[in-house]
Input
Amino acid sequence: MICNLKNTNHFLKTKISFTPETAIILGTGLSELADSVENPIIVPYSEIPGFSVSTAPSHKGRLVFGYISNHPVVVMQGRLHYYEGYTMEQITYPIRVFKQLGVKNLIVTNASGSLNEKMYPGSLVVLNDHINFMGTNPLIGKNMDEFGERFPSLHEPYNRHFVELANSIAAEHSIEVFNGTYAAVTGPSLETRAECIMFQRLGADLVGMSTVPETIVAVHSGINVLGISSVTNYGNIFHSSSHSQEEIRKNAGIAQKNLLTIIKEFLYRLHLEDEKCQ
Ligand code: HPA
Output
């Protein structure tokens, strides 16, 4: 992998002339933020050595480098999922690439089903913890010592300062956000009623098919993570009708506007914090 990473980074450095400080992964139905990138440099995954191409509908599959709120970013418009048949290494490869490019923070977004009646479809949840129920771990295999230690602590996978900052930005903009625990499953089938009840009893507020692999690899390499989930549907505990992909996308669209406000302001605050440190 190291050799591939060198090629990927060499290629990307020929495209950009700045160091992105924050990487943003845009989940299902949340790709609009990429349109807010100033002076965008767009690189399709298909052109990047070492990158795999997403097969999920609505995932565009490109990196957008540039600035949001004066803050240097790289946006992943479209992610890879385990249910598409990719390995954990393929899914999390971009995080290793970002680390080597100099990225310090990761904002990871996703669409999820709610197991907590308070967290309604169309609302946003700032993640404060997760349960890895994918049956595997992206760090399995020889440890990449140059990135981090063999047994990284996940006592606080989502940076507490980031959670508080996102909460206060939401409050200032009169946007209702919740804080909660995300359980990651492989999918692609949605959860049964019994599974929803099990996850709820285990302490999960949300269930989804992504985010945890990227977060684990980011934390392993010392990247600070902010996770935000857009609730697209209730799990099967609250109603018996199945939810369509159309419903999921519609509710992600409702949450998207608020998500954009929070992320733009969040990046602005990071920019201010950076200026203070200089
Ligand atoms: N379950 C798992 N993943 C999801 C869901 C869900 O209900 N909604 C959006 N992604």
User: Anything to note?
Assistant: The longest strand covers residues 224-234.
